[in-house]
Design brief:
35% helix; seven-stranded mixed sheet; Rossmann fold; single chain; binds magnesium ion; globular; alpha/beta; binds guanosine-5'-triphosphate
Length: 195
Amino acid sequence: MIIRKAEFITSAADALTEIDSPQFVMCGRSNVGKSSFINMLANNSKLAKTSKDPGRTRLINYFSFNGGEFTLVDLPGYGYARVSDAEKQKWAGMIEGYLNHSENLVAAFVLLDIRHPATKDDLMMINYLYASAKPFVLIATKADKLSKSQIANQKRALAQSLKVGEADIIAVSSLTRYGKEAVLDKIESLLALQK
Ligand SMILES: Nc1nc2c(ncn2[C@@H]2O[C@H](COP(=O)(O)OP(=O)(O)OP(=O)(O)O)[C@@H](O)[C@H]2O)c(=O)[nH]1
Ligand SMILES: [Mg+2]
């Protein structure tokens, strides 16, 4: 699949049912690289706002790819200790609200930092997706931080702990674009299943 065009649609606090193109949503801890991942796929480092400080994305942001062929949805991260309980509740509400009300969700991308084991929050997210029968794809981010053999080891460790096959985890680097083609192939095949 070739990305010809990627544009920001809008920000909202809830699922927008009027956006009727097939959607993929980014789930993951604050700072794991959700917004950077969208930018990698878009070939545009300025499309989604990123930051070295966790907690950058505070609303649900919608991005249209290839003139509506599909939509990527950027969510606020979870698990960020340094925000108020009220803010945490608000973000959790947005994440849950999106997942419960999105009518055109094809699959969730669950992003995990390739250097670390999945957190309790990650497991909660994965269990939630599993229990609500929503398809998900596991993405191991920041692969540029590791050597090739370390990437293989970490993928194996994550796969074991999450009880999935190693082939079910795609390692990516938004910095080097490693893994980009594998992700686009995945998107293409998931879209083909919809038809
Ligand atoms: N080395 C490296 N750094 C990355 C990669 N992806 C993201 N980062 C860095 O990680 C930090 C967080 O990236 P974001 O894309 O803003 O993360 P996020 O998950 O959207 O964060 P929130 O919006 O706060 O939930 C930034 O400093 C990015 O430059 C990657 O593949 N490699
Ligand atoms: Mg973000």
